[in-house]
Design brief:
There is one protein chain. The chain is mainly alpha-helical. It contains 15 helices and four strands. The protein has helices at residues 2-33, 36-45, 48-66, 81-91, 94-112, 124-130, 133-143, 151-158, 179-192, 207-222, 225-238, 242-265, 267-279, 289-306, 308-337; strands at residues 119-122, 172-173, 176-177, 196-200. It has a two-stranded antiparallel ribbon with strand order 1-4. Strand 2 (172-173) and strand 3 (176-177) form a beta hairpin. Helix 12 (242-265) packs antiparallel against helix 15 (308-337). The longest helix has 32 residues, at 2-33.
């Protein structure tokens, strides 16, 4: 009977170790995964907004090189990667991109937390900038890299027979200043851009998915209860003395704490490796490797920051487990030297 009870206790001790490692990670991830500030900090840590022009430039340059002769993108073949970088940087400044990204992330987290019923992509800031002189100058910078406009193209634009053409216009033609014509056409094109785009509309059929998500989050929040129950079951089946308690609780606490410490410390590397093995191969070939690497680094940063609180909890757990194991060994040593030692 004693052997059976100890076997059951060993089972619950092993279950405690596994459930503790999993519960610590899931509990801390759930606390961070639905907080907008968590993602905003991660984007800042990876310097995404400042790197975006270069990343976009490389993507567009690769897309243009891969485009067919009749493709719309083929008209940008005169763009170098440096020109793409300058154009994107001038057209979409980091401050504007940051404001849009933070707004969308905040809305999305509020939606997942049940605090709003829609998610909107705000374009008013981008639209206002494109219509400003700085935005117009950025478009002129793009046009300056194109071949000179032909007489036919200029005539069509001046007479209103064609919209803005991607060619390098002169400042004037036949003493007519063409800049106002271009700027009027740019303004007309910008006016078509909506103030906002509905990403998730109210009443969209996602009620069941949101309910399932809330249920999963509730289960994750309650997950620490399972390790506690396992420790109680260990005590019930195996603990008969103070020394037994030190042994049967000390070793599981120590092992679970050390495993959690190890996995938490390497969480960034594990996330990056998992991304590289299973997610990176799914990306289309048109996406440059440098952008895939950015997604990998951002994923690693998010996972590492999410499990960061686990380090402290796991460290405390391993410390108390170590103390209990040491005390158990001391008591065992004294009992061996003095069998009459009072338990």
């Amino acid at each position: 009977m004693e052997t059976f009870l100890k076997t059951v206790a060993v089972f619950f001790a092993i279950l405690f170790i596994g459930s503790t490692v999993l519960a610590l990670a899931l509990y801390n991830v759930e606390r961070s995964a639905f907080d907008a500030e968590f993602y905003i900090r991660a984007l800042e840590e990876e310097n995404i907004y400042q790197r975006l022009p270069e990343l976009t430039a490389q993507s567009l340059a690769l897309a243009v090189q891969s485009s067919q002769g009749g493709s719309v993108l083929s008209i940008f073949r005169n763009f170098s990667e440096e020109e793409w970088r300058n154009f994107v940087s001038n057209l979409f400044p980091p401050d504007i991109l940051r404001a849009v990204a933070e707004d969308v992330v905040t809305q999305l987290m509020d939606y997942l937390n049940g605090e709003r019923d829609s998610v909107i992509l705000p374009l008013s800031g981008i639209k206002a900038y494109l219509g400003s002189q700085a935005g117009i100058d950025a478009i002129y910078g793009m046009l300056g890299t194109q071949p000179d406009c032909t007489v036919e193209q200029l005539t069509a634009m001046v007479t209103g027979q064609a919209d803005i053409v991607l060619c390098n216009p002169p400042e004037a033609i036949l003493f007519i200043d063409v800049r106002p014509i271009y700027e009027a056409q740019i303004g007309a094109a910008v006016s078509v851009i909506p103030e906002q785009v509905m990403l998730i509309s109210p009443g969209s059929d996602r009620t069941q998915q949101l309910q399932d998500l809330r249920f999963v989050r509730m289960v994750v929040r309650l997950s620490p209860i399972l390790p506690m129950l396992c420790l109680l079951m260990v005590a019930l089946f195996a603990v008969r003395s103070f020394a037994d308690w030190l042994n049967w609780w000390g070793y599981p606490l120590l092992i679970a704490g050390l495993i959690s410490l190890f996995l938490s410390a390497l969480s960034g590397f594990i996330a990056a490796g998992t991304f590289q093995l299973f997610i990176a191969p799914v990306f289309p070939d048109l996406i440059p490797p440098v952008i895939v690497n950015v997604f990998r680094d951002l994923t690693a940063t998010i996972v590492r920051n999410a499990v960061q609180p686990t380090l402290l909890i796991a460290g405390v757990m391993a410390f108390f487990g170590f103390i209990m194991v040491v005390l158990a060994l001391v008591l065992r040593s004294r009992l061996r030297k003095n069998p009459q030692y009072v338990r």
